[in-house]
Design a protein that fits this description.
2 copies of one chain form a homodimer. By secondary structure, chain A is an alpha+beta fold. Chain A has 11 helices and 23 strands. At the A-B interface, strand 1, strand 2, helix 2, strand 3 and strand 4 of A face strand 1, strand 2, helix 2, strand 3 and strand 4 of B.
Chain lengths: 405, 405
């Protein structure tokens, strides 16, 4: 893409009321825009990153047998009364129609939709297990939103729901999804700093796990075992001051961000919706359920919290908006741009005539594309190549550039 | 995909309160589910069709220079007060937070977000023109919803917005998008039955056009010229009883469904948001805007209205959920399934052991995949191949099947 055609520009300053590192950097670099507190638009660069994250998650969900659907944002009050969450769910957006008697919930999660949906198709043990997921925007009526993309009033989630005939089958699938989550975080570049931990608080804490990523901006404080890649949170550490896996007491402490959570819901939602099946003995039983979430925007924000320096973002290659940032100075790099594109390399081509060299360098640093390639009179028929994450610069030929990038 | 693993099943009956042909067929075939009146989930088969339509639209939007973004559903009251639409917009979902003073709109359209967004990046004629689009769910607080996917309370839209320095430039781009819309409807299979018409009613009717598709279930009545592929609506026909292009008076009358609309907004939204630019003379001017919508669910529903028979849906090939429906009867078609997949053919493989031949035939008809391939003891090492849209059956070899399908 030609940067002269990109409708966004970088900014010197983030909005004054924006506190989090992730959103300050993403707004300044033109990846997102704040529509209001806790609500953001994804602009072309941010949208590209979002799509890359979405692709990784979709592939891994399909690999564990997930069938993709799309459920609505608007949910009927009745379903939430059935589960008792109309009154009890924290930060629920509830509202009435102005034209009819209808009352709605803006979905913060979809157990109230997926459970009655599956009831329409599940009646026998032969219809189980089933794995269904969606990628969709969700809503929470939060009082305070100060963490940028880490906690918003509107946010994009992948939610997978699983349905089983037995608790044992739920357990086996739960362990499979756990492995799939490690893969997702690995592929997104934060594998090294992400730990599995027992979830804190809530009724279901003992049936659920969180994936926590170490960053200085995190909302939670965790104690983790580097060897086993397992963490325990503050509440649990008081009772068990050791790693649950290797029993080592050498735990490290840090603030962390939750990037995923998985729950054994068991029959909590199948019971109120009478989601039952006949087993092979002809007995009617409740379906066992699991649910598994990842916030896409939250993951994107976490990646920025982990990978940045004082100059800007440093995207891990698999989720970068482009692979190469091609800068031209007082010369025409069109030939190299075309050649990279021909070989399928994603390039942001800074062809702007009215930007100074200083502006182009600063933009490349804040946008954070993995490879920076410079073509100028000084470099002749060579290209000056540098990784965003390193300071070493080398001169390469066009052929070498295509090979490396 | 193996049909035994698909979590949906076909149904004999649609819900009693569902009147429209599109939603009755789509629910019976397991493409969509009704979460409540006017609100649907897209199930695996429906989601696949939706993604195919999305891909066609995305490609054509990129071909006219569109840059993709994702704007939020939640919009602040203030922006809607700025344009005067907080009070005046028909069927607007407006509501308050339970925890703060915030008041929100659920976006039925995005001029109130995109105009202030572009203001952050446009200041000079050098920043124009700009073309920005998104594909996202939208909301209308409708009193009556009886048309299935043709008019819902929640629906998925592609909305493109264009920004120009002059009215002439807006005009030229508007004509370009018109052609792009013809391509989209052509590629979706409804090109032959879709006509351009001047929009009916509303302030902007003289600056806007609709694309109407002929179906018996339509909400509008149009008069159309088959030769020029142009239509005029009821109000206009009274004054001008002829085709605006060729002046022929041989117009045909039918009910039709609006599948797309395009508007020259001019400065209607740039003015209230002070979206201005300096022209090359240094004068400050308002930006000219256009907007261009297509409802993806509406388009999907319209395709079903146009292409069905008494037995079920007949998908046009480019938007079909699969290309081949492979049915096995008392034999194992796994080898053919694998071979088709190897050649990149999308196959739904009816490998169910407990379904009767009659059920398999009926399911193939209602689901409506373009090619039906049957493997049974009767067909030996040949495959019985039939198009959903034709009655002719022929026996082919595995090699021929891969070639044809």
């Amino acid at each position: 893409m030609r940067q002269s055609e990109l409708f966004t520009k970088t900014k010197r300053e983030a909005p004054k009321d924006e506190e989090a590192i992730n959103s300050r950097l993403l707004i300044r670099a033109g990846f997102i825009d704040k529509a209001m507190a806790g609500v953001y638009s994804f602009l072309p660069l941010g949208f590209r990153v979002l799509k890359k994250i979405e692709k990784i998650i979709r592939e891994e969900m399909e690999a564990v047998g997930g069938q993709e659907i799309l459920m609505p944002t608007l949910q009927p009050k009745g379903n939430w009364e059935t589960t008792g969450r109309w009154e009890n769910y924290d930060s629920l957006f509830r509202f009435k129609s102005h034209y009819s008697k209808n009352e709605y919930v803006l979905g913060p999660t979809h157990e109230e939709i997926i459970s009655p949906l599956l009831k329409k198709f599940v009646s026998s043990y032969k219809d189980l297990p089933r794995y269904v997921f969606q990628i969709q925007n969700k809503f929470r009526d939060e009082t305070r939103v100060k963490s940028g993309l880490l906690r918003g009033r509107e946010f994009i989630m992948k939610d997978l729901y699983s349905f089983h005939a037995t608790e044992g089958d739920l357990h086996d699938y739960y362990e499979k999804v756990k492995k799939s989550y490690y893969k997702i975080f690995e592929r997104s570049g934060i594998g090294q700093s992400t730990f599995l931990t027992f979830a804190s608080g809530g009724t279901f804490s003992k049936y659920s796990h969180e994936f926590q990523t170490l960053t200085q901006a995190g909302e939670d404080e965790i104690y983790f075992c580097e060897k086993c890649r397992i963490a325990v949170n503050k509440e649990i550490i008081k009772e068990n001051n050791f790693c649950p896996e290797c029993r080592s007491k050498k735990l490290k402490k840090e603030k962390a961000v939750e990037v995923g959570n998985i729950f054994k819901l068991k029959t909590k939602y199948s019971e109120p919706f009478n989601l039952m099946f006949k087993n092979d003995q002809g007995e009617v039983k409740d379906v066992y359920m699991g649910c598994y979430g990842i916030g896409l925007g939250r993951l994107l924000g976490t990646i920025v919290e982990v990978f940045h320096d004082e100059k800007g973002i440093i995207w891990p290659e698999p989720v970068a908006p482009f692979r190469v940032h091609l800068l031209e100075f007082q010369t025409d790099a069109k030939k190299i741009y075309n050649s990279l594109q021909k070989f399928g390399v994603e390039v942001l081509y800074d062809d702007r005539k009215d930007a100074t060299a200083g502006q182009k360098f600063a933009d490349a640093d804040i946008i954070g594309i993995p490879w920076r390639a410079i073509v100028s009179k000084k470099t002749g028929d060579k290209i000056e190549l540098k990784k965003r994450s390193e300071s070493k610069v080398k001169l390469v030929s066009e052929k070498e550039l295509v090979k490396i990038a």
